[in-house]
Amino acid sequence: MKETKKWNWTGSAVILMLLVFILAARCFFSFCQTDESFYAALIHRFWTGDRMITDEWNTTQFYVPLLLPFYSIFMAIRKTTEGALLFLRLLYLLFSALTAFKLFRLIWKETEDGFCALVPAAVILLFCRANIYGVSYYNLCMLCCVSGFCSAADALGNYGKKQTIQLLWAGILFACAVLCDPFFAPFLILLLIIAFFGTGKKRETALATAGIAGMAVLYCAFLFSGNSLGEILDGIKYVLDDPESSSVWDNLISAVRQMASLSKFVAIPAAGMTVIALRDKHRGKASQLWVPYMLIQAALLTCTAVRTITNLCDAIVMPMTVVAFPFLFAFRDRQTRLTTGLYLIGLLNAAAYVMASNTGVDAGAV
Fold first, then answer.
1. What does the alpha-carbon distance between residue 74 and residue 198 come to, in Å, rounded to a whole number?
2. Distance (Å, whole) CA 283 – CA 68
3. What is the pLDDT of residues 29-63, one digit of tens each?
């Protein structure tokens, strides 16, 4: 039995590592004609001395300071921007691989099932918003959210100094997620309030909050190192008036309209899944019904969504998300709580994406 578990873990880890090598090779051959060069140009501008908010008014600028230390090392070694895009791709791959293996380790500890640990970790590696495999604020926000969740979840099973460090690190990662997408901030505040008052984990929540506060202090120190308060207040008006960015309400309305077009196709399958989930909860164990039912409904919803949503990725991801939802609340053991927490973090991340983007529900494919 011990040998079986060993090979189960080893085989899954080898497959995950193989994916990393394939993606590394892909970085040398692919070409992006959309926003990849824009994100790299922002980093380079701040490295050359341009100031946040004062010299740059684009709303996507707030995460760039997180990458400046890495870019500074690259420029110190290379002395030229040649190879900068490749470096940033490989840097993102490193972040993605670390997050994937962190998630793999967490799920393996709870399930000791290599396949269960491999699939979500592989999704982290393979998914990138708009197929931009680089340091976009979308991609980094997702990685920070998942990595922060893994640190927090793992910390709850530890004690003493190790738990303290993990919770502080989780707070830092969640703070980085907010810097990548500021619209994640209200959801993070809500999660902290629920954790503090609703779960009884007051010490743990306070440690995570301390990590967030520490990151905020460092960020403000960087921001004010090159700007006065008056300059920041003058510049922020132009950031908020960015003509390339639509309002939050316009983004939400666009997403709701697109989702409403699918509602009639979602309601019946979701109701059926709920019935099966409640039946399983009453029996105290999972039945075999939900596997074929979920696959059939996901296939039907995908066919419908492909005709309704212009973005193919959303048409595949959204139906799978909907049909899986009822099962997260059928059981309340630690494994299910872990899955539910990861699922909800993903939903909140997707909602923040939709609020930040003018592409409608397309942004919520995460």
1. 45
2. 54
3. 877 777 788 888 889 999 988 888 888 888 788 89
